[in-house]
Design goal:
Layout lengths: L1 H14 L8 H20 L5 H33 L8
Helix pairs in contact: 1-2
């Protein structure tokens, strides 16, 4: 999604510099530029907003689960420390 929007914005800006009467040459310039920018964005290893939101939600759930497990471990440690030692034979 982000890449598509970025592409469209970039190409609308570039389209202003290519004269409308350029014909096949203008179309070729736009085509080559589209390929060049696409390759550059792929190398940047960008993620879409949707992928980012999914990972953010996963991180929130993981942090919540971690906090719950930390509380559980603390409660178990307290129980273990308050346990009476077994009677000696």
């Amino acid at each position: 999604m982000i890449r598509r929007l970025l592409f469209e914005e970039l190409f609308s800006q570039v389209g202003r510099f290519v004269p409308s009467g350029a014909g096949p040459l203008g179309a070729d310039v736009k085509k080559n530029l589209r390929a060049l920018v696409g390759a550059a964005l792929t190398r940047m290893d960008l993620v879409s907003r949707e992928e980012f939101d999914i990972q953010s939600a996963l991180l929130v759930r993981t942090r919540t689960r971690l906090a719950a497990l930390e509380k559980q471990v603390t409660a178990l440690e307290v129980q273990l420390n308050h346990r009476q030692p077994p009677p000696a034979p």
